[in-house]
Design brief:
By secondary structure, this protein is an alpha/beta fold. The protein is built from eight helices and twelve strands.
């Protein structure tokens, strides 16, 4: 969730709200009075309700709020079923602590390292190498990680940075190697983004092998000259071939590629 929430008060004028929308680009704000949420006001409210001088006459008073202990999956379920695009998060006294948006939900579900994904990888290497594996969940020092991918995309790094800043990022998946290093199986964008943010550690699913072997992934990485995070190239202008960005957002890549 976003913790740096712009909150407004019932006595603020509608013209002030329009100015905030213009300056921030956000289109919905929790309305708080005496440190307690009392409503929400959105750009839609400004369009469909009768014009009144202040927020109190135009805000929505029937709103859905969530406790900070609510899981992201349950938040997504509530937002989908209730047809809402933003979910204020409050403490027990209904003081606003943050807000979850549909953008947060989408980002959290893209390229997730779900337990199913981890288990599928474990099953594959156990069958392929005739071994057993153990799984743990822990923080790993970034300097001990051995990447297996030589490229990441700058536009995707922006997304992973967004997730890490808001606590939405899933753990990466690594395999503990013979030399007390950790081979990165999944999560290179999260790794590079975290490193760029100055973090020393990253949260990871750690798979430990029952006997010392060298995985094909590790051999390929070595053959391709990938030894550390410094060997990962950041592709600045690449993006999905079926996506075009028009207008002034980006001067390049404005044509959908064939």
């Amino acid at each position: 969730m976003t913790r740096n929430v712009i909150k407004v008060t019932p006595d603020m004028s509608i013209s002030e709200i329009k100015e905030i929308i213009k300056k921030t680009g956000h289109d919905g704000f929790p309305v708080e009075q005496d440190d307690k949420i009392v409503g929400m006001i959105t750009a839609s409210d400004l369009l469909i309700r009768d014009l009144t001088p202040t927020v109190s006459g135009m805000m929505s008073r029937d709103i859905v709020i969530a406790n900070e202990e609510l899981s992201i999956n349950d938040a997504a379920r509530v937002m989908f079923r209730m047809g809402i695009s933003r979910l204020p998060v409050t403490n027990e006294k209904r003081k606003v602590l943050g807000i979850i948006t549909n953008t947060d939900i989408l980002r959290s579900h893209i390229e997730r390292s779900t337990p199913e994904k981890v288990n599928q990888f474990r099953d594959s290497i156990e069958q392929l190498y005739d071994i057993t594996t153990d799984l743990s969940h822990e923080n790993v020092h970034i300097s001990k990680l051995k990447p297996t991918q030589d490229k990441v995309y700058a536009d995707e790094l922006e997304g992973r940075t967004y997730e890490i800043e808001r606590g939405l990022a899933e753990p990466i998946i690594v395999v503990k190697c013979n030399d007390n290093k950790y081979l990165v199986v999944d999560g290179h964008h999260r790794l590079v983004a975290s490193n760029q943010m100055g973090n020393d550690e990253i949260n990871a699913y750690v798979i430990t092998l029952s006997k010392p072997i060298t995985l094909g992934l590790e051999k390929n990485a070595k053959n391709n000259g990938i030894h550390s995070i410094n060997d990962i190239e950041i592709i600045a202008d690449a993006q999905h071939p079926l996506i075009a960005i028009t207008g002034s957002l980006r001067e390049k890549n404005t044509t959908i590629k064939k």
